[in-house]
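Moderator note: this is an archived Q&A kept for reference. The question asked for a predicted structure of one protein chain; the sequence and the answer are reproduced below.
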Amino acid sequence: MVEAGFVIAAYLLGSISFGILMSKVFGLPDPRTVGSGNPGATNVLRSGKKLAAFLTLFGDAFKGYLAVWAAARYGLSDVGICLVGLSVFIGHLYPVYYAFKGGKGVATALGVLLAISPWLGLSVLLTWILAFAIWRYSSLAAILAALLAPVFAWRLFGGPDIYFATTILLALLLVWRHRSNIRNLLSGTEGGFGKGKS
């Protein structure tokens, strides 16, 4: 019952969209109505308000971290901790507060992975930074980081375990949420920072 309560609370926490909240605080348009329509930090950044984008990024990552950290701190089992991590992530993707239409989940997944293992989270973050620095596409960087996350998890945890399986599920969901970006990247119509659409 305790683990079920944590899982439900994690989903409700994940359903909070900091992109929408920060846009309201800073008097910006609803991020779902501009740019890519995604209520995430990248789309908020397109408004020109860097602080709003940073707070969105921090908030979305922190809720993922907080949920997993709290579950571990309370002493939940490894399975319970992983269920909490998946629940807060799914809450971001399909938030109950916003008709189940949420973001891509990059920052929240990063927060979850950082709480599971700082080395795993930092490896994924470094991959994103390097890929973005080279190609200047946030979506491509996120996809590459997601695809490599299970590799990092395998190396860190020494083989298949519940945390490795959780990392795979997070990666698959994240790539699925980027399916429209994948189509745009393949067709050359994806907009990147410092470059327009082809």
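Archived answer notes: The mean pLDDT is 95.
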